[in-house]
Design brief:
By secondary structure, the protein is α/β, with parallel strands linked by helices. It has ten helices and twelve strands. Strand 8, helix 5 (about 155) and strand 9 form a beta-alpha-beta unit. It binds adenosine-5'-diphosphate.
Amino acid sequence: MVDRVLRVPALPKPGETVMAHSAAVHPGGKGANQAVAAARCGARVRMLGRTGSEGEFIVRELAAAGVETASIQTGDAMSGFAAVMVADDGMNSIVIASEANGRISDADIDAFLGCAKRHEFVLMQNECSGLAHAVAAARTRGVGIWLNAAPMGDAVRQIDLGALACLLVNEHELAALTDLGEPEAALDRLANAWPKLDIVVTLGAAGWIARVDGALLSGRAIPVEAIDTVGCGDAFVGALAALRCAGMPWIDALARANAAGALAATKAGAMPSIPDRCAIESMTQRSM
Ligand code: ADP
């Protein structure tokens, strides 16, 4: 996904036109951001995706971050498109169009998962076509399935959550999934419905709550001067997946994911703001 980012004084209301401070183009997409976040956290990451030729710079960024990009095709007419607005208070508003990522085929997914090992995780988002097929194919292969149910939509609602090892959502996605506005109550409902599923809910500047290995856990966000919260969730999810894949206990991995999310809020852009393991570790130690 190519992020086209406008920095605005305040997010426009419906029907309103506002003058931006600036415009910029960044590599983005939840999948790419999370792949970079996991790689910067030390995981070995392969990524499946598609772009147009104007998205080739993203593939170069991924490779520079250490992500294996051989499964990313770049021949489409148009890359995925994200129209991002970031306001002076750090709040954001985002519209995306999948474009190339909407043309990922079941055959692409089968080829990608064909060499997956049982100890590996596959981390999915809802920005691409083939989500249901990918869940079914990964389940058949016995690979641990993590789903960041973002953006929320019908494709997510049709997934059998019992097939997942871990569901990751922000508070808005959680509310849309459960029809409950209060995150603790919504988590409780999901946790009761899916007793074996690990569930992690990010709450922006309020931190996170989770039900993992049957236990309820929570953490406050680390106070930082937030200048751009785009990519916070991706930094959190990618770091958490990498650290869990490396065998770190949930509570320690969640503390570091929380630090990754906080660090991402302190820099502009999504991919450029994703911290590495060293920065995450020092932020985690400072916050204790
Ligand atoms: P998303 O980007 O998916 O909406 P969130 O906004 O919930 O995700 O943020 C993900 C995580 O990033 C939070 O759980 C928290 O750890 C961290 N985070 C987000 N915003 C801030 C902030 N303003 N200050 C500190 N940490 C933040």
